[in-house]
């Protein structure tokens, strides 16, 4: 008797699951689809929404319009949103670029030169404005999907400002992390960055993005 009572409800339970399955799929599938948009624009949006800071090593390649390589360099990139970043070039020559929130400092130890420019002017229509800026990306760039290439999802950004030195910027993402950046300037020169050893939202000291010109260097205001 006990065995009979145990097995009788099972067919009814299976029927109930069959009736509920279409409803469950209708509810769950749209939500799943909404979270699997791996397009470049979607990953850019999630990337910017998810970071307040960034640290990464980089490799940079600069190529002329005819494709010949003009320069290759390496270093470390630091970002603290909004409006603070730092590029420390280590190879082949040491150089440093620091944005302190008001000005951008360009330091060349070998030439013993420092140039400084107001940040609002120096960064207009540049990738730095995109990554470190506080305004919505759409305000400064026209955004379009650039498809998939090299295992990455790409987004293209065209500066709205006619003063920008760049014609277009392309960013390559994987798993909502920035992996590549490609820039083409108005002279056809292309600059490519690869980012690796990425750390999201690291902690920086209060003075990390401050720059004090060394003594005995030439200082140029631009």
TrEMBL record:
Localization: Periplasm
Keywords: Chaperone, Lipoprotein, Periplasm, Protein transport, Signal, Transport
Database matches in CDD domains: LolA
Cellular compartments per GO CC: periplasmic space
Transmembrane portions of the chain: none
Superkingdom, taxonomy of origin: Bacteria
UniProt signal peptide: 1-33
GO-annotated biological processes: lipoprotein localization to outer membrane; lipoprotein transport
Keyword Lipoprotein in annotation: yes
Family membership noted in the UniProt record: Belongs to the LolA family.
Function: Participates in the translocation of lipoproteins from the inner membrane to the outer membrane. Only forms a complex with a lipoprotein if the residue after the N-terminal Cys is not an aspartate (The Asp acts as a targeting signal to indicate that the lipoprotein should stay in the inner membrane).
HAMAP family: LolA
Self-association state and partner proteins as the record states: Monomer.
Protein name in the entry: Outer-membrane lipoprotein carrier protein
Organism field: Sedimenticola thiotaurini
Annotated gene: lolA
């Amino acid at each position: 008797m006990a065995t009979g009572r145990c097995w009788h409800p099972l067919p009814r339970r299976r029927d109930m699951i069959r009736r509920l399955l279409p409803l469950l799929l209708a509810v769950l599938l749209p939500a799943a689809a909404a979270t699997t948009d791996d397009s470049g624009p979607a990953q850019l949006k999630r990337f910017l929404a998810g970071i307040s800071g960034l640290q990464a090593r980089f490799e940079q390649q600069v190529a002329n319009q005819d494709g010949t390589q003009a320069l290759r360099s390496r270093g470390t990139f630091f970002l603290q949103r909004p409006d603070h970043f730092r590029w420390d070039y280590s190879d082949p020559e040491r150089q440093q670029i620091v944005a302190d929130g008001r000005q951008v400092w360009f330091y060349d130890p070998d030439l013993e030169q420092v140039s400084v420019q107001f940040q609002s002017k120096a960064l207009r229509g540049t990738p730095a404005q995109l990554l470190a800026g506080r305004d919505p990306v759409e305000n400064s760039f026209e955004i379009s999907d650039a498809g998939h290439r090299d295992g990455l999802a790409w987004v293209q950004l065209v500066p709205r400002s006619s003063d920008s030195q760049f014609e277009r910027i392309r960013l390559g993402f994987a798993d909502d992390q920035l992996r590549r950046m490609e820039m083409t300037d108005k002279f056809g020169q292309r600059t490519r960055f690869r980012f690796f050893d990425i750390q999201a939202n690291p902690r920086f000291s209060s003075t990390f993005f401050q720059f004090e010109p060394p003594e005995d260097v030439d200082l140029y205001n631009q």
